[in-house]
Amino acid sequence: MSGVQPLPGSFRDPSGNVYQVEGRILRTVNECFSQDFDFVTSTGLLKSLAAEGLLLPFEFVSSDILKLSDPKPRYVLETPRLPFISFPYEWSFSALKAAALLHVRIHLQALEVGVTLSDASAYNIQFQGNHPVFIDHLSFRRYQSGEMWVGHRQFCEQFLNPLLLRAFFGISHNAWYRGTQEGITTGEIRRLLKWRHYWKWNVLTHVVLQDLFQKTSTTHTKSLQDHSLATASFPLSSFKHMLKKMSSWISQLTPLNKGESTWGDYDKTCSYSSIETKSKKQFILEFAQKVQPTLLWDFGCNTGEYSETALEGGARYVVGFDFDQGALDRSYHRASERRLSFQALFMDAANPSPNQGWNGLERESLQSRASADAVFALALVHHLAIARNIPLVQVVNWLISLAPQGVIEFVPKNDPMVQELLSLRQDIFPDYTFENFIALLKEKAVVVKIETVSKSGRMLVWFTRM
Amino acid sequence: MRLLGNVLVVSIILVVFGFENSALAYLDPGTGSMVLQLLLGGIAGAAVILKLYWRRFVGLFRGHAREESEHSSSEDQK
Prior knowledge:
The complex is a heterodimer. Chain A has three domains: 18-79, no CATH class; 88-256; 266-465, 3-Layer(aba) Sandwich (Rossmann fold). Helices cover 42% and strands 16% of the residues of chain A. Chain A contains 19 helices and 15 strands. In chain A, α3 (93-112) packs antiparallel against α10. The relative contact order of chain A is 0.09. The chains are: A alpha/beta, B mainly alpha. At the A-B interface, α4, α8, α9 and α10 of A face α1 and α2 of B.
């Protein structure tokens, strides 16, 4: 192969690859897949899905741009560049559920025109705000009479089981999913089940029986081969029924421990008065109006209240990060209700998503994935510097490294929230003062504006990197 | 539970091989998922399974269950 190299995460499917050339996103369709692709496009499915906003639209472009000779692609498709790429281990329960439902919906629509999906990878779905969109045009291929739902196991591992983890046991999927990258196996979920779960037909079939068959079938391998299990038949009506039942089940799943969120009600219970909130919002609004960031990262976004303010001010797209599931779910619903270009992701600022996967490059870290034009760290610094013992200088330098400008809220030690953090431990943070914070910030940035926004002395600082 | 799994897997194998297609994907669907789908899709084949076990059951009383079982298996494979 010569010319441009495919993106590091694009290697599993021989049908084609994804490339990035001068900021353009290009997807090749290799000769081996061209017949299937021709059939799929002839059905009009891709166009109709794109028109409904369920699939990323594409255009055919000349293959010369890639300078590929071996193999020379049959087609090259160009798709719009998404504002931000996220991974399922960063999604909230609500987002993963929406992605799962989209996948099934698309599969059902595809089957209506004789097309099926060749896999069920959650990584084939991305978000624009809270709106999920399917991005892999090469997952579609001609349906052959009697074939099975090939991606069923993958669907269970990457969508269903992570949702069940939260719905049945109140455990969020993020850390586990980030560890495995491929989701949660059916065997693992089955081992967690209580007997009370067994009587549900969906659990019995998709979890218990699937796992049982997987385990016992290893003892019947020869028999399975002899009887051509790989080419056994599955009626189309059963296929569709299975997808519909799956969709219906997933749409009813809700988190088990909705009420246990620390920060989900923060905007109702926080220590700000309405006047203080108003002045904080005014500061944010002014920043957004002046800077007009294309991509803003809001670390510790909570329920997305200030992300929304930034959007009102002129930010084009905001990605919020938080590790509280309740806050993330509320952020998701805020974005849904008000149709915001806002996406809230699970992220611990002290442990952001790293480079990982095959060769350490398959799934990029947060900072190598995108560059933000601006960053917010509102009431975050004390969580890192005090609750997590990260030296203040490192916190400040990290925030400055994230974006060329931003707003940081410094919460002083006498604030009730900091006092709570220190209530059961020794105060080993003599350098945690506003003066020290500003001095550290000024080593690498220019302070544009400072404002006190609460009675306890919380300070908002607008900075621009030097 | 494992015994139940064995019985079901064998039963499903016995009733599916008459219906074949040639679609293979780059993704390994997993035998557990495939056998499950054969079960879900093979509700129509349930009658065949019941018939099979009925023969075995009757065979037990006749004292030559093994022969019956082998006979029915080879018949199904045609």
